[in-house]
Predict the structure of Nitric oxide reductase NorQ protein.
Amino acid sequence: MSALPITHDPLAQWRQHSEPWYLPVGDEVASFEAAYALRLPVLLKGPTGCGKTRFVEHMAWRLRRPLVTVSCHEDLTAGDLVGRWLLDAEGTRWHDGPLTLAARHGAICYLDEIVEARPDTTVVMHPLTDSRRVLPLEKRNELLHAHPDFQLVVSYNPGYQGMHKQLKPSTRQRFTALEFGYPAPDAEARIVAHEAGVEPALAAQLVALAQRTRRLAGEGLDEGASTRMLVHAAGLVRGGVAPRAACLQAVVLPLTDDPELIEALRAAVEASF
Ligand code: ADP
């Protein structure tokens, strides 16, 4: 009896098994498809929790590509992205990092919050973003030519500029960019109602609250309530928490520690519910 061949799918963990629901807010789907057709790298700009990650998940599904996601942070090294030699029972073996895996096998690689990574880490992706589409794996003495289906997508929040690190011009100029903002009120209410499974009326009240908090942005508050926060608050209400308490827990307290701002936000909650 001959044994069945063992097929190993190196991207198995990065394949999505159902369609991520995404409500388009403009022409971003067509814009992304046009960039993908040319395999141009894409930079998604916008405040935290406004739908960037959900959008790229949805696009990977539409384009039938696996999505390799990396959340960037300041301890992320080039080796974490590219790969390294590791010692195991059989000796030293090379392990592709997520960027290499995506480039080798033709996935979309999504680097979330790219500015959180140090510049010496982000620089490794540069040769993948121009017409060469290569990734030098120096430790392995290999020049990897990216798979034809590979695409690089990164996200970043321009609201943090100045406070935090910035994206270097030599990095940002390699990308085409799509700008995201909070969805228009009707669309945002539909998203909250869909995601948390709540009535449209409650979703609309939460969106009204979010708009009040967003007016406080810049006046001490770094950023107003995100769509993500509204989904959390709606979920708490659905689970039985009273609306004002849910907003305190999911919106007000996560947004700030400043006592005056907390009071201003509490007043916004009371005006909304
Ligand atoms: P970001 O990556 O911008 O920080 P996410 O994509 O994680 O934000 O969005 C946070 C949540 O908001 C998502 O999990 C989803 O529930 C919801 N969301 C925001 N915008 C949309 C949208 N246009 N369609 C569907 N869900 C959305």
Summary: The beta strands are 42-45, 67-71, 83-88, 91-96, 108-112, 134-137, 142-145, 151-156, 176-179. The first helix runs from residue 28 to 37. The mean pLDDT is 94. The radius of gyration is 21 Å.
